[in-house]
Structures are given as structure tokens and as C-alpha cells.
Amino acid sequence: MKLILIFALCLLVIAVVADNKGKSKNRDRDDSSKSNSNSHHDSDSDERDDDDDDEVKWNNYKQKNKKGYKNPEEEVKRRNEFKKNDNKFKKHNERQKTGQTHFKMGHNRFSDRNDTDLERKFLHKFTRRDFSKVQNKVPASSYPIGPDSVSYRTSTLPVLNQEACGCCWAFSAVAQVEAQLKRKDPAYSTRISPQYLLDCQPNSGCETGGAVSDAFSFLKTNGLVDAAIYPYTAIEETCKANIPKLTQQVTSFTHYDLNGDENLLKNVLAAVGPVVVSMYVVPGTFMHYESGIYWDETCPNQCQKVNHAMLLVGYGTDTETYSEPLDYWLFKNSFGPSFGEAGYIRIIRNSPTYKNNCNIACMIDFSS
Ligand SMILES: *[C@@H]1O[C@H](CO)[C@@H](O)[C@H](O)[C@H]1NC(C)=O
User: Fold this and answer.
1) Report field, pTM of the whole predicted structure over 0.90
2) I need a labelling partner for 295 at 20 to 30 A (CA). Which of 52, 173, 242, 345 fits?
3) Within 6 Å (CB) of ligand 1, which residues are found?
4) In the CATH scheme, what is the code of domain 4-11+120-367?
């Protein structure tokens, strides 16, 4: 069956400013600070002047996230968005306290932009994608029922930051290969170059995005490159030829359309190890995720919509945080270690209300 899916692209991080270009790379690159420590300025003391409080908060935010703006007007706009987001996070986190939602939102480098801006700048146009050339049917009964919980987190290498480039497709693909190599050999530590994919794989890029199955196909044909030899620059550049290849190889890869079947995803993950999931996220909540189990009632359950890809590394049930046990999927993201739970995000699993929330059980790709 010829299967045409709307395929989509990734989140794009925008470099800070034009007149700060030399420094902006380092600024965006530095994403190592956890941004939830403004709470000591949240004092509701009557004595405190609100404007002073806002000023302190804003300066802390800029410093913590290494922000620079091209001019004072731009800063006023961004500060305004920051303030709105700050209020939004407070309201949301109140709802979290009363169990109406199960994750917290907090400040990170995305919180000085409005939702429209996030969507426009960090999510991309869809391109049509034909998966008929790759396997797309899960072989019937080929996967036994997975255990109640699985975590491959110890088989992953440290979280990376895709920065100002929409190439989650490349980061998630190399993260999957790394994790599979580390599963086979716990001493494995070589980082595989996403830049090699970005520069050399046709029909893909920072702004055009790319398909994860194409990335695996490319790596299978062309080999794996050490990221230390072909480092990440967050810009699509000319493909460098004659790069030495690692002895490790991608020998086969698989694409499955799971049509929203979370049980099937669980069984496949338990059997094959970490897999890349292409999904659809809502920028106004996803980008601001700090901790807990994420879901968004506006996330679609319709497999054609995709705008991000992450490495799925496990699933389980949180029996401690909420009034009731809550099932989750565990993902490794590529927004740096300061995003979410040390660079990871948990997304709701088996929700009776929001099945297949954010299309987490639609398209998966994995190498073996
Ligand atoms: C959101 O931010 C962008 C960029 O600063 C701006 O162009 C747009 O007007 C803003 N939208 C709203 C609804 O405030």
C-alpha cells in the first residue's frame, strides 16, 4: 500500500541577535543552567515594589539564559513576553498543585517568546513524505508483551543541544544509534556526528527538516562519523568528503506506522531498545516543560501531524508524585540538559482521556 504521510520538521532555535552574531553562538550554546531558581524573588511581601521585583527577575533570566537583544525595542517586546509567560506558568503550576495537570512549566531560553512566535520560529512547514519504500507494517505478533516498566536511560550518552537548527531528525537518529551501541557495549562512548547528516544527507537541513528514516538509510549506506572529527556547528554547511568512518555500522533500520497503538509501542520498545518517535508537540506548553508528566489537551491524536522527533528510552508508572499512579513515556530530547528533567521529558501514556497524546505512538524508526 502506498502510504503518504504528512511529514514534518523540527524545532528551530533562533540565534540571539544579528549585531551580536559572534557571541550569539556561544550564548545559545551555553544552556547548562537550570532556570527555576527565581523563586526567592517570588516573595509576596507587601513591602516589595512590583517593578523592582520584575526588574530583578528579568535581569536574572537574561543572565541565566545568556540573553542579548539587538536593540532596546526588541528587549521590551521580549520582556513583555517573558512577563506574560511568567504569569502563565504561575497559573499553570497552581493547577498542577491541585491535580488538574501533571507537569510544571518553568523558565528556560524559550520563555521570552509568545506562542505564535515559538510556532513560527521553532516549528516548520510540513512536507509530504512517502514511506512506501521503507517497511511500515509491524509484523503480526512478532513482539511479546513488554514488562510493566523499561528504562534504557543508562544506555544513553549525555543530552545534546540542537541549538539554532531544526535538525531533531539528525540528533534523534544519532542518539538512537549511540544508545544501541552502548546497550551492546556499556563502555561505548563515541559521539556520532549529526553535522555529517545535516551537511551530507540530501533533501534535509536546518530549515527544511528531514525524515528520520532517511537519516538511518543514509547512515547505513555511508557509515558513521565521529562527532569529534565532524563537529556540530548548528548551520548546514558543504558536505565534507573523505571523512574517516567508525568501525561500528548501521546494518539495518526499520520504520513502523503504529497508528496510535500505545501497547504496540510498549512491546516494540521492550524488544528492540531505544527508538526514535516522530510526534506533534504544542509549542506553548511543550517548550516550557520543566518537570512531571506532560500532556496537552490540544495535542492531536491524528498521525499525520508531526513537528518534532525525540529518542524514546523507556516507559513506566509514576506511583509517587500524584494522587493516582500515572503511566508515562520517557524521552531524551535535544534541547540541552537544562530543558525539562535534565534534558528528558516524560509524556503521558495510556491516558483514558488523551489517547496517543501528541502522536507519540504513530511513527517510529530504529536501527539495529
Ligand atoms: C508574537 O511575537 C512576534 C515576534 O515578536 C510578533 O511579531 C507578534 O506580533 C506577537 N504576537 C502576538 C499575538 O502578540
Assistant:
1) no
2) 173
3) 77, 114, 116-117
4) 3.90.70.10
